Amino acid sequence: MSEINELSPSELRVWQAFPRGESVDFRAENEDPAPGDTWGAERTVRASVLRALLLKSPREEGEIAALKITGARITGVLDLKYATIDAAVRLSHCQFDSVPDLYGAELRQLNLSNSELPGLDSATLRVERVLRMTDCRIRGPVRLGGAQISGALFMERAEFTAPDDSEPVLQLNQASIGDDLWAPEIRAHGQVRLTGASVTGRINVQDAEFDNPGGTALDAQNLNVGGHIRARCIRAQGRVEFRGSRISGRLDLLHAHLSHRGDTALRASSCVIGELWLRGGDRIEGALNLRRSQIEILTLEPEMLPEQVHLSNLRYTVLTPHEPAERRLPMLERDGGRYEPDSYEQLMAAYRHVGDDDAARLVQLAKQRRRRTTLAWYGRLWGYVQDGTVGYGFRPVRAAVWLLSLMAIGSIAYGLHHPRPVKVGEAPDFNPVFYTLDLLLPIIDFGQESAFAPAGWYQWLSYALIITGWILATTIVTGVTRTVSRQ
Questions:
Q1: Which of 46, 57, 150, 411 has a CB 3.0–4.6 Å from the CB of 178, allowing a cystine?
Q2: What is the rounded CA–CA span in Å between residue 151 and residue 364?
């Protein structure tokens, strides 16, 4: 341990302060730095000295040892691979020349706030309490994959960059955090990976920027969150990926700006989410994919929806804000031109859940019209007839109007030209109104239809009245039945 015997004055101060847990602040000790050395020798500490201090320094009885350094330049690699450190470590406002290696280390507490690092190797790191990286500036990959942090992870206003895009700038895949992940206003120039991570508390990335144009900006597939994700006002250039995640609370994307032109901007498919809020932000630039997800409360503002919206097999109980069906229906027509009947059924159920039966009927009517486009020409033709006459059964009032109109036409026609009786002398007095009703209403018999036989075009008129009567009467009964069953 030759470095212990050749300590510089700054290192000696750290060595002597450690057993008593005292702080050493070097920020005011750079009065005469050497040319080109903005930090000065008085603020420089070798990483090898810190390693020896943490692993082998004797403790003082009755004191709690801790490494607390502020404003130092740390040279060399701080190698704590697989080490077990029972003292708290705080290296704030420090500058690291090399990437610290904390792979597989076990620490009581680690604080790197306001420090500058060329990267961080800390996969499978274990922290008994809290890991702080507040206001850090890191110019290389931060590898925290598989890390286990019993307390919270703080990364407020941290900035992550990397010299290339060969790997994510921040890797928290398969990490386990026992409390909150607190990272408002972080700046990530490259991919952030949270795949398979588990956060017992909340995630806060409000006002964050995720910048990875042309790729995935935030990869949070199979993320498990016990509380809310607060992502208000985030700006993401690149895909935001939540596929397969479980979020017990709320995924809050109010006032978010999401952009991944020509591809998917937000994918939250196959997810289980308590609440999803997409409201108040700019229109999403890129596709929105919510397929196969289960969401209790879906807050979806029509103004934020992009040109492509994938909603097949999406399940939601409540859809807010309450909008007229005319403003909701366009989103069902943006799934690449495909007809997805389940999406219409789900929207209809949401309207019925809040008692808006009129909107639900409009959705059902729109479903039939969309289905019509998938039929052969004769099916489409029959669909247009059904739509124009009775609105596919969802316009029973229109059917009643048609019945009254046809009754008036038949009454006038047969009133001007009485059909001949089938059996002369046995037929009742002819009544054109009840004769027409006999033709139109299949379940009512006034004795007129069987007693008289029209000829010529009046016979063809009777056939038309019989056929349309069956169709319209069935439509009215269906509409009334549907109304009664809903009530």
A1: 150
A2: 51
Contact 363, 343 (CB under 8 A): no
Lowest mean pLDDT among 235-239, 355-359, 395-399, 459-463: 395-399
CA dist 352 and 311 (Å) reads 19
Each residue of 16-40: pLDDT tens digit?
A: 999 999 999 998 765 444 444 566 7
Where does residue 4 rank: exposed (0-12), middle (13-18), buried (19+ CB within 10 A)? middle
DSSP helix/strand/coil, 448: coil
Q: What CA–CA distance (Å, rounded) separates 276 from 269? A: 12
Closest among 409, 361, 369, 389 to 470, alpha carbons compared: 389
Helix, strand, coil percentages in the chain from 3-state DSSP, rounded to 5: 30, 25, 40
Which 8-state DSSP code applies to residue 53? Answer: H
Indicate the burial class of 307 (C-beta count within 10 angstroms; 0-12, 13-18, 19 or more): exposed
The one-letter amino acid code at 130 reads V
Q: Are 86 and 48 in contact (CB under 8 A)?
A: no
Are 89 and 111 within 8 A, CB to CB? yes
Task: Please state the φ and ψ torsions of residue 416, each to the nearest 5 degrees.
Answer: -80, -25
For residue 404, with 0-12 CB atoms within 10 Å meaning exposed, 13-18 middle and 19 or more buried, which class applies? exposed
Considering the entire predicted model, what is its pTM? 0.82
If we measure between CA atoms, which residue out of 345, 391, 396 comes closest to residue 372? 391
